[in-house]
Amino acid sequence: MNYQRYFRPEQQLLLRIDNVADRDDRTELMTVYVVSSDKADLIVSLPYGVDAVDQYPFYASMQFEITSKHWEWVFALPAVLSEKSAGTPLP
Fold first, then answer.
1. Are the CB atoms for 14 and 7 separated by under 8 Å?
2. Which of 14, 38, 52, 70 has its CA 20 to 30 A from that of 6?
3. Residues 65-76 pLDDT 10s
């Protein structure tokens, strides 16, 4: 999928994360903003402070859903976390 076609820098997205470890199988919802995108990757930023990426238990291959509105379309896409760029390395 060509992410550049549907996602623009500073666009607000909603991340939906299901079955997070130690969270009693709750659904977690987080607001993120697009930093950049290309044909295969979407890079997002958390607006929750400098250490936000360390405050939430992100891990390699974490699955989540990205939801956004572009033009008059609503997108809900499955995604997998491949890397986090700040804080501690992924386990």
1. no
2. 52
3. 888 876 677 878
What is the spatial distance between Cα 30 and Cα 50, in angstroms, rounded to a whole number? 15
15, β-bridge pairs: 30, 66
- For the record, the structure tokens of 72 come out as 């008059």
Residue 11 burial (10 A CB sphere; 0-12, 13-18, 19+): middle
Sign of the CA dihedral running 56, 60, 64, 67: positive
**What gap in Å lies between CA 34 and CA 18, rounded to an integer?**
21
Cα 82-83-89 angle, rounded to 5 deg: 135
Of the candidates 71, 63, 53, the one whose C-alpha atom is nearest the C-alpha of residue 7 is: 71
**pTM confidence score:** 0.74
**Radius of gyration of the chain measured on its C-alpha atoms:** 13
